[in-house]
Design a protein that fits this description.
mainly alpha, two-stranded antiparallel sheet, 2 domains
Length: 175
């Protein structure tokens, strides 16, 4: 076998693995979003559930002053997913209002990740809180778009506590 034949054979053997590595590198952000949207995943006997992700996000939170009101408790009792959606919707309204109140410039309708960036840039939230918000949004989106997952009342209330603690901080921010 000549050197050229050897190189040709080597390239043929590595073409597909290199193609997949390149594909993953090019689309890594999209793969990250897909992975974050997964509610549960099982690989070789290890299963990660929504509750595990929510616990990890909760560990990162420092503020738990919010006490869920009776309305949230009733919604969570009837439909935990609806309670999570409601908590997120209220959070979005608070963010939109605070951005208007502070006259923070923005170009038209922005995606939530862009709004998170504005909040961080204007020091309304920390890097850790931004990471928590991205995870909480991912959990909310996964549940709203794939409502077959069973969320407990307690998980919904914990989610609401997390999102409200950040919302309270944003609401209380003074320029």
């Amino acid at each position: 076998m000549s050197v050229l034949e050897f190189i040709s054979s080597l390239l043929k053997s590595l073409a597909w693995p290199l193609f997949f590595i390149l594909l993953i590198l090019i689309f890594r952000e999209q793969f990250k979003q897909i992975f974050n949207a997964v509610i549960s995943i099982k690989i070789g006997g290890v299963e990660v559930q929504l509750a595990d992700r929510l616990k990890a996000v909760r560990k990162d939170s420092e503020i738990f002053s919010f006490q869920p009101d009776m309305r949230l408790e009733r919604i969570a009792e009837i439909s935990p997913i609806l309670a999570i959606k409601d908590a997120w919707d209220k959070f979005e309204l608070i963010v939109q209002e605070k951005i208007r109140e502070l006259n923070i410039e923005r170009a038209g309708r922005m995606q939530m990740n862009e709004l998170f960036g504005l909040l961080k840039m204007n020091r309304l939230i920390s890097d850790d809180e931004m990471g928590m918000l991205i995870n909480l949004r991912s959990i909310r989106n996964a549940l709203v778009h794939k409502p077959s997952y069973n969320v407990s009342r307690e998980e919904a209330v914990n989610y609401a506590k997390l999102i409200h603690s950040i919302a309270n901080k944003i609401e209380d921010f003074k320029k």
